[in-house]
Amino acid sequence: MKSFMKESDTSAPVPHGPYEYYRRTVESKSYKIHCRRPKNMEYGDNLEAAKPLDVEAVSAEAAKLIAEMQADGGKLPDDKALHVDGFYDPSFEVTGEDEEILLDENEEAKVHAHYVVGCVAISPSHQLMAYTVDTSGYETYDLRIVRLDTAKKANHELVDEIKNIDGHVTWGKDDDTIFYCKLDDAHRPYQVYRHTVAESADDDDVKLFEESDERHWVDLSKTRSGRFVVISSDSPETSEAHVIDLDDNNGTPTPRVIAAREHGCRYTLDHRGSLFYLVANRSANKTKEYLESTLCTLPVSAVLDGSAKEKGRTLWREVPSFPYEGEKDPERPERPIRMLESVSCFQTFLALSGRRDGYAAVWVLRPKSAPQGEHEEATPDFHVHQVFFQEPGSTVLEGPNRDYESKMLRVCHESMRMPSRDLDLDTRAEHLPLFVVKQQEVPGGYDQKDYRTASVAVPPEVRSTCFDGDEVEANSPPVRMTLMWKADMYEGEAIPKNAPVLLYAYGAYGVCIDPEFDFKRLPLLNRGFVYAIAHVRGGGEEGRNWYEGATGAKYLTKKRTFLDLVECARYLKREGICAPDKLCVEGRSAGGLTVGAALNLDPGVFDCAIAGVPFVDIMTTMCDSTIPLTVTEWEEWGNPNETAFHDYMCSYSPIDNVRGEKYPPMLCTSGLHDPRVAYWEPLKWVTTLRDTASGGPFLSKCDLESGHFSASDRYRYLRERAYELAFVISVISNK
User: Fold this and answer.
1) Reduced to 3 states, what is the DSSP secondary structure of residue 560?
2) What pLDDT is recorded for position 529?
3) Can you list the residues of the chain whose pLDDT is less than 50?
4) For 223-386, which CATH superfamily applies?
5) What is the pLDDT of residue 544?
6) What angle do CA 537, 541, 543 make, to 5 degrees?
7) Which run of H or E residues covers position 571?
8) By three-state DSSP, how is residue 282 classified?
9) CB-based burial of residue 730 (10 Å sphere; 0-12 exposed, 13-18 middle, 19+ buried)?
10) If we measure between CA atoms, which residue out of 57, 116, 119 comes closest to residue 88?
């Protein structure tokens, strides 16, 4: 596995003020090194020196567009961006020249068995750096603030420290003020404090906000414009945001609400000029909840003068050039073609993140007319462009973009077989050309042409009844699976036949398991395995309706998630894709619940299972409100104090429904310091399996030094994953 990891590597540099920030890894060292170097030119000004990459490697359409652009600046329709496998600007390379080491995690980690950096925040002057560190795995962080001395390569002067807080912090308007969140006894971020750097003790810090509703967790961010600190208080179903105006110098700042909370109303926001832009599932002229979100505006003045608190959503205005209505998939009416998730504002354009046709997507919105000074229309009109690539079934995400004034948009692109790459899109050019900044290198002779991917659907008409009486509804939508395999193992076959398969599933919180490259899969693929992702209901791959709508899987329809996974497993065997006795299933955390419940429904269809930190004792945890996450989780699974939810949850809780039948060999992992799924849940489940079921063996492996996300040391993390895959190979090869 390690042979496919580039041990000494450098991330794509991210422009921020007068510097470019990046991270490095060094062979044999376990942790990252955070660095910066001066920007030697305004970012993007050297694009005329860029040279095309191998034109033969791009599609005929892209080659034509390249030729047009090079000849006379060819134009594209408003709804497309130039989809090129890229240009490459050599000035983007990180050579080490003028490098300043900001933080060497390896040095600090020497005295800790577990070491995770939560965030790194550079002060407005770039002279101070704040970073948070978790050294237990329990996700409680210490904040450290150091003075960056450009004459030093490390060991910067520590000027301030705050212990036992949340991992997210944000600077104020200058280097004197920083904002952070405190945790309550249930490990919930619930209070926001303002701290004066190097002057006040944390006991003297000013409390600005407190969230009393135990279902809501508080988070901090800053608008890219730098003017507002955003206090987000979110539960799984409801959002409320307050902003602190950093331009207000009149004493203690007052958080101003964007819109008072309404149950079921969700929104995120950013700021540009005289407007806040919101991606929200409700608007002024829609009284009922959207399953998907729309783009709205809200005047900054309405928030600052308090009228937004009084009038709420009546002040929101939908952006007409990006409406919610209008696009539907005729073959999948339950799924909108386009779904929005968040908005990022820049001085001259907007970037929207969401999904299109079931895959992650990014759009660029450029104003059709320039705003008059800092003021613009309440419903500005935009040219809309989707960042578009030819690679089928690929993932496009907005990358790290720090500078509000930037004319470049960083995006990240990858697929199951294509390693990730960071690209910059030049919003100044009408055709929006893309430039490759960083291409992930995969050693060990990896060539994406040697691998194949496919998407298959499990149609409802062939999905049957599980043996306990629960059944898939006749009108259920098809469940999509994404497959990857090594081509020369199955030459001449569009889809592999009679293969060993590792089937992965999650299916909760509306989380999307998107096609992404992972070199840790290659040892399996090179042994003839097919890697499959089951995009079961409860996830968000097909939109909010896939999660919580009429066809979704939440609350009293949660069993649909587990039924979908069972039917995907049966489909793989029924269609001959998987060999009769070589199907392994895997899930982590809530995905471990999915695996555990599916095993109880049909233990015979699976031949091996891996459950990582699995949430399997759902009743014990959900009935104890003192356990971290419990009260918040009531909006995902239901409140067991209500009879209907209690009885339904009991009917699928993995630990409460183990059968006295033959189960496949299983490996169950846990973390001693895990605050999300306590270590005793997996251990108790394995004990129950050993006492009740036959078959097995049922193995338990508890990491005594880590929490929910396994080892922080990247080499130890690889060893842990290698152990899991060795278990799979051992079980399947002996069938």
Assistant:
1) helix
2) 98
3) 48-63, 65-91, 325-326, 467
4) Prolyl oligopeptidase, N-terminal domain (2.130.10.120)
5) 86
6) 85
7) helix 559-574
8) coil
9) exposed
10) 57
**Distance in angstroms (rounded) separating the CA atoms of residues 455 and 67:** 33
Numbered ranges of CATH 2.130.10.120 in the chain: 223-386
Rounded Cα gap, residues 273 and 180, in angstroms: 26
Interatomic CA distance for residues 44 and 714, integer angstroms: 34
543-561 confidence digits (pLDDT tens): 888 998 888 999 999 999 9
Task: Report pLDDT for 452.
Answer: 96
Between 3.40.50.1820, 3.40.190.170, 3.30.450.40, 2.30.42.10, what CATH number should domain 452-733 receive? Answer: 3.40.50.1820
- The residue type at 376: E
Distance of CA 246 to the CA centre of its chain: 29
Task: Give how far Cα 351 sits from Cα of 283, 325, 366, Å.
Answer: 20, 20, 9
Residue 72 DSSP symbol = H
Return the structure tokens found at 290. 């959207």
Give the phi and the psi of residue 48 in degrees, each rounded to 5. Answer: -70, -15
Find residue 422's DSSP bridge partners.
Answer: 412, 438
Domain(s) labelled CATH 3.40.50.1820 in the chain stretch across: 452-733
Which tens digit of pLDDT belongs to each residue from 374-423?
566 777 889 999 998 877 789 999 999 999 999 999 999 999 999 999 99
Gap between the Cα atoms of 583 and 569, Å rounded: 8
- pLDDT for res 218: 98
- 88-116 in b/e form (b: 16+ CB < 10 A) is ebeebebeeeebbbbbbbbebbeeebbbb
Transcribe 585-603 into DSSP letters.
EEEETHHHHHHHHHHHH-G
pLDDT digits (tens, 9 = 90+) for 174-227: 999 999 999 999 999 999 999 999 887 667 899 999 999 999 999 999 999 999
Sheet with 350-356, strands from edge to edge, namely 338-345, 350-356, 359-367, 382-386
pLDDT score for 370: 72
Q: Which segments of 254-320 are extended strands (E)?
A: 256-257, 267-272, 275-280, 294-299, 317-318
